[in-house]
DNA sequence: TATTCCGATAGTGAC
DNA sequence: GTCACTATCGGAATGAG
């Protein structure tokens, strides 16, 4: 299982016109940069919001506006490949996560990032950040408990923590893959990797793990237990509503390190969001002005990437 | 002036394929009923919302859905004739009524119903009922006063009352013209008029004057004094918002008989609408459900006409 | 705090 | 309550035989 996970983590950017995988630290062919530029250039806002699965194909969200060149270069997804809501997921309402835990194989690799006996990891159907994965425990008992109750079980909690570590590493790795070449602190590593004579030991580069958040929502709407693992930029097309933003930027998001919660911890019964929306990066108060906040977050994302 | 007004009142249904006017009680030719059926049939929802002016041409609001026959029969308005907002009116904001009082001749006859030295009567640009006229005093001093203050002047008030009587009669006459043939109580009169041997004295028919409302808004938004004169059905496409409805169905609408107001009358400083919306005809409470109310009002209009 | 659809609510800008 | 535009806010349904 760990071997499979490792392989996954190192799967580079994929399109149908690239080999399906390259090995761990292998030097990328220079021509790969063309593909990278066509789809990963955040300046063009065309990066995919999903982490590639084992046989994934690249896709673009509807909000993408590829220019003429990228339009020519990119692989047009077929209806089957398209990573859209399906009858099984969207129309199942609050039980929409059940199908993943029961039959992960029935979903396209763009949706299910990986799965093992105890967990399924998927790309959130409505990502609220550039990268947004869900870690779904498959245990059908724990599955339908409120997370605050399920995590009273020490063993289950520990299992989730272990798996969450892997998912966090996946997100960090994906951040580097997508944005590393725009990051000042990642540049030494990138340049070493792409040099004609790469060193045996790469420079560490940027610690993207610091830009990963995770935890459960104190009052989830979906009935199956899901652990959010996402980048902290909060920029995505489906990020539309006040509660979307606040659910990841307040203590409504409860990290696994807080569990088990005390019996009287208020996060066992969180009710609503009285708070203003504050930019996660600069702290500016946007009150309830979602449109203004979204513009601002897009700007902050660029700055954040360039760090 | 009175002669001109009388002529106006008796101008029958008009299209470009009919003579511009017929005299007072003159017997209508039978073929006129074809025109009446084509444009006045409320069952087809094709009546114009505007009262014809002296040289008016018939028009249809965008919401009209004429059937194939009426489509063939009717005169298609040109862009110039079209009774749409103009730069002069709409873009003048709160002063949009000024232009009518200053230069009524510059407007098409579909807009200005009539004018004399002291008053201009127009079709409301956004009618809130099947028929909705505005009586505009031209006096440039009184003009820009709040109506509650302007009507403290007894002579001005009396002048407005006299003119309002005429406008109310115009609206009543227009109601008969449009809806009389669908009205049970108006039928004896209609049948007498259309008979081969009409009596010298027509039966009185329905008293449409009872279906006319008028008055000023206690807190008008438009800066020029305007007296609303309208049918009580409250059915129109521009009737969209809660305040539209409540402004005509509560004591926010103040009839001229109430003036001059006592110095401390609350209607001198009306603030807001705390009220639910009640159907003017059956009293049903629609709370703040505007869509539901609109559906209901359309049904009530049909019943009301058939009375 | 699943989304989507519809509709009600609120602020602004027009000149 | 001038409208029109944008956006925010608020409830209800969401599947299927």
Automatic annotation (TrEMBL), chains A, B:
Residue span(s) of domain HIT: 109-233
Gene3D superfamilies according to UniProt: HIT-like
GO CC terms, sorted: nucleus
GO biological process, one term: single strand break repair
Gene Ontology molecular function, alphabetical: DNA 5'-adenosine monophosphate hydrolase activity; double-stranded RNA binding; metal ion binding; mismatched DNA binding; single-strand break-containing DNA binding; single-stranded DNA binding
UniProt biased composition (Basic and acidic residues): 183-192
Basic residues bias: start-end ranges: 20-30
Keywords: DNA-binding, Metal-binding, Nucleus, Zinc
Chief location: nucleus
Cell compartments where the protein resides: Nucleus
Domain of life: Eukaryota
Aprataxin C2HE/C2H2/C2HC zinc finger domain location: 249-301
Ranges where the record places region Disordered: 1-66, 179-205
Descriptive protein name: Aprataxin C2HE/C2H2/C2HC zinc finger domain-containing protein
Lineage, highest ranks first: Eukaryota, Fungi, Dikarya, Ascomycota, Pezizomycotina
